[in-house]
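Support case: fe (iii) ion complex. Customer-provided input:
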Amino acid sequence: MFYVGCHLSAAKGFAAMGKTALQIGANTFQFFTRNPRGGAAKAISQKDISDFLSLAEKNHFGVLLAHAPYTLNAASADAEVRRFAFEAMSDDLKRMEYVPHNYYNFHPGSHVGQGAAEGIKRIAELLNKVLTKDQTTTVLLETMAGKGSEIGRSFEELRSIIDLVELSEKVGVCLDTCHVYDAGYDIAAHLDEVLNDFDHIIGLPRLKAIHLNDTKNPFASHKDRHEKLGQGFLGEEALIRVVNHPKLRELPFYLETPNELEGYAAEIALLKKRRSKEAEMR
Ligand code: FE
Ligand code: FE
Ligand code: ZN
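Agent response - structure generated as follows:
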């Protein structure tokens, strides 16, 4: 199966996102668990959840990707900022159990001068506080572009976090194509080598999802500005190789390109057209 979707607004609930996904040719989607600027999450409606679950089952949806607010910084030196990270993430993970067996992605955080080692320790501390044995959600660390003091700019940093997590079977990685290229992993010219690196350092079984984005900036720029597929420095061919790669093609792909729904529909149609037949037969 080819699981492909994009980031959708969660304002109208799960059933609405499911319908929108179908309208644009998607069979999964990403959404923010709450306002990305923080604040309380919307109340959960049991009816909305059951409507969504039946729609998803009928239409063979792939796994959903929830995205934590990007203001969440588990690595902060400021105890108040870390308290928000703890409260938002533990509340999000409780809510995720209404739609069990999905993924929850977050930006590991920025150490803002304390040094990466200190930041890594703090991120693992948060995960050790919020993860529970009984949760069905897998929490994903996102690969980051490395702007400012972002942690997660290298596979080694992600590995160091995972190594400090007790319930590490609940932790995976989401690879963002824009971010890794910005971080200095040349997935355009050397995709196989990058995946071998990932495998040696983190282990490919940890890789659970792909954020499929082009980038507005050249290789290793550490900028993190997403571009529409084929209109940036990665280019269409490189992104199509990602989608068809034998080690990646079974993963779900989520677009976070600067698009309205119409633009997303066009990109999804392009990806389906260029998905290799050989990949589809499996
Ligand atoms: Fe992200
Ligand atoms: Fe991303
Ligand atoms: Zn980004």
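The radius of gyration is 18 Å.

Case will auto-close in a few days if no follow-up is received.
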